[in-house]
TrEMBL record:
Pfam families: Acetyltransf_3 (PF13302)
Database matches in InterPro entries: Acyl_CoA_acyltransferase, GNAT_dom, N-acetyltransferase
Protein name: GNAT family N-acetyltransferase
Native source species: Lysinibacillus agricola
Annotated ranges, domain N-acetyltransferase: 9-169
Length: 222
């Protein structure tokens, strides 16, 4: 079943017909290095992974890691979607692509569609992501999507500290408001008023009393 579509890609539910691709993906050296060994070594293991992972999560929560196909030839190239882990409070985005499809913009295209789906359809205002500290490519992609580094965390039964990155719609909205031209103009006026209170050039008399209009009564200037 198709869930999302972009200019070049289709994101759909994984099925047991995808066992060969999933087996290959989960044993790719890049997956083993940056994500981990899921002990999926046979086609039967891959079938179990699909049924107990993405299929079950979609049935329970309405989202999962989707299979990503190129429209051209309908070749599977990776997975991308949303996950709810017991060890994390928030829903997180995940993605993994076969190396021969790296550096072609596919991961960003798929992840952007998933982020829009999460916000607009599922109503998520906060989405997180985890990645190893050495996986700079994933970090760069997440930052391009609007994520920011929050802290290092340690997952259950994992000795390695991972980076937790966060996308917060409310926080981003406030940030955009502060960066608006109108807000910048207000801040510039406040700054100018502050420094003018201490100016005594050319015979100008200090007007420190004007500071009471800029600060709350409890404020202290040191």
């Amino acid at each position: 079943m198709k869930i999302l579509e972009t200019d070049r890609l289709v994101l759909r539910l994984q099925t047991t017909d995808d066992v060969a691709f999933i087996l290959e993906l989960l044993n790719d050296p890049s997956w083993l290095k940056f994500i981990g060994d899921f002990s999926v070594k046979t086609l039967d293991d891959a079938r179990t992974y699909i049924l107990n992972g993405p299929v079950r999560m979609y049935e329970q929560l309405g989202f999962c890691l989707y299979l990503v196909e190129r429209k051209e030839g309908r070749a599977p190239i990776g997975i991308c979607g949303l996950v709810k882990r017991d060890s994390l409070e928030d829903v997180d985005i995940g993605f993994a692509f076969r190396p021969k499809y790296w550096s072609k913009g596919y991961a960003y295209e798929a992840a952007s569609a998933v982020m829009s789906y999460g916000k607009d359809t599922l109503g998520l205002t906060r989405i997180v992501a985890i990645t190893t500290q050495e996986n700079q490519a994933s970090t760069n992609l997440l930052e391009k999507l609007g994520f920011r580094f929050e802290r290092l965390i340690q997952m259950t039964n994992d000795s390695e500290e991972l980076k937790l990155l966060v996308f917060d719609e409310t926080e981003n909205h406030i940030k955009k408001q502060w960066e608006s031209s109108e807000t910048k103009e207000i801040l510039d006026r406040l700054s100018a008023s502050f420094f003018d209170a201490f100016t005594n050039e050319n015979g100008y008399k200090l007007n420190v009393h004007a500071l009471s209009e800029l600060f709350i009564p409890e404020a202290m200037i040191i």
